[in-house]
Design brief:
mainly alpha, Four Helix Bundle (Hemerythrin (Met), subunit A), two-stranded antiparallel sheet, 6 helices
């Protein structure tokens, strides 16, 4: 059978193609796009998980984990490989350099790392409330280093 001068099998083929395109579009629309977590979110999540380590006698392991979370975050955030550096190397290479992005956070970061080093290497025992303060210092460091996002401001004489 021929419709409008075009064989029927071409009409069927065209209809099947249209259905396939529609099905593909519907399927793609239903696919959820997974947005990876930001470096800040990962660091803050890690710090929250470290909270469960706060217990008597666990200061060394706790501070090692929290310090490592901050070092990994700094490495990702600023593309600075600080995970394997000692605190002194980090201070000498990055905190003392006024051009380093870490120099803005030098005092807080140095205080945090020194406290962690005390617990890790000098076998300084920390009370649970002190470990809570270390965790809070780490959280504040992540918040302070969070990238600033641009905020749209209305133009003069106009509406937003």
């Amino acid at each position: 059978m021929v419709v409008a001068g075009i064989p029927r099998w071409i009409w069927v083929l065209a209809a099947v193609c249209c259905l396939l395109v529609a099905a593909y579009c519907w399927w793609r629309k239903r696919q959820t796009k997974i947005v990876p977590d930001s470096d800040e979110t990962l660091a803050l999540r890690g710090l929250e998980e470290a909270r469960s380590m706060i217990k008597p006698g666990a200061a060394r392991e706790f501070c090692a984990v929290v310090s490592n979370i901050i070092r990994i975050y700094i490495g990702k955030r600023y593309q600075i490989p600080v995970v394997r550096e000692t605190t002194e190397e980090l201070v000498r290479r990055h905190l003392a350099d006024a051009d380093s992005p870490l120099s803005l956070h030098a005092a807080a970061l140095r205080e945090f790392l020194d406290l962690c080093d005390l617990a890790k290497f000098a076998k300084g025992e920390l009370a649970e409330e002190d470990m809570g303060r270390v965790l809070e210092q780490a959280r504040l460091l992540v918040e302070a280093m969070r990238p600033v996002t641009a905020v749209a401001t209305p133009k003069k004489g106009g509406t937003p």
